[in-house]
Amino acid sequence: MSWHCTGLRWPQEGPVLGWQKDGAKDRAKGEAGSTRVSVLVYGKELGFRAGGERHCVGARGNVCPLGAVVSGRSTGARCPECARLDRAHSVAADTIADDPRTYRVYLAWFGPSMVKVGITAEARGAARLREQGAVVYSWLGHGPLMAARRTEELLRSALGVPDRIPYARKRAVRAALPGAAERVAEVERLYGRAAALEGAGWPQSLERLPFEPVDHTGLFGLDGPVEVARAVTELRDGGVVAGRLVAAAGPDLHLAATDGVVVLNTRLMTGWELVGADARSGVTVPVIDIGGGGVQGGLF
Prior knowledge:
The protein is of the alpha+beta class. The protein contains seven helices and 15 strands. The protein has helices at residues 24-29, 80-88, 127-132, 145-159, 167-172, 180-195, 217-220, and strands at residues 2-9, 16-22, 34-39, 45-51, 102-111, 114-121, 136-144, 207-208, 214-215, 230-232, 240-249, 252-257, 260-265, 273-276, 287-289. It is globular and about 60 Å long. The protein starts with a strand and ends in an 11-residue tail after the last strand.
């Protein structure tokens, strides 16, 4: 049996890494094994070494029936068939029009002039905002799924508010965020413009919620200067990523390694069998320079 990383999770208390223990009996049944989490603490050392081949993580709680090997550069860690199955059952695919759950519409701020609109199931609370790395957010309204969808589209068409921001842009601005008042003010201005649309296409079944901004800089470890220099592009057999955890946001860990800060998208960790490594081991996997304007593909 071996433990495989399932990625970065964001409960309200702070970041944790998820782990899944896979055994032959579980795989034979097509079931996921037991799980656990590791609580992450800023200032503490963290290191691991990847081993063997990277395997598809399956879809919707089921293991990949093919046990397919996937690319070390993929942030999805799924083979084409499992990726199709996972996408087909997601709210983002817009294929579940009869979903009976209540949804919330939110405004999320990632940096200057980077505010987006989105929706999330009300039962999930603000987990989706933390998973995306939203530095500041406020709820806009709540109601049925299709009303939330129409509101999202209304803001896109009437106000030009995007529902996606390339992840490279989110990551690049973390090193120099403006002050708290400026962050909140930008979200508040957009909230006011959105609220003014009531009676001009705003779905009647979507109840507007009051402006109550939440700032995640402390939770993410971004309440002080955070260097953004290099980013890991893939893991490889025998490759090591190790350092002192200085910040985390969305799927990213910022690690102070032996030769500078490196940012690791934890989605690159999924599907690998990982073992611990000394924090002084540094980084021996491919990286790119993002401090000087390099970019890595968008995720959200």
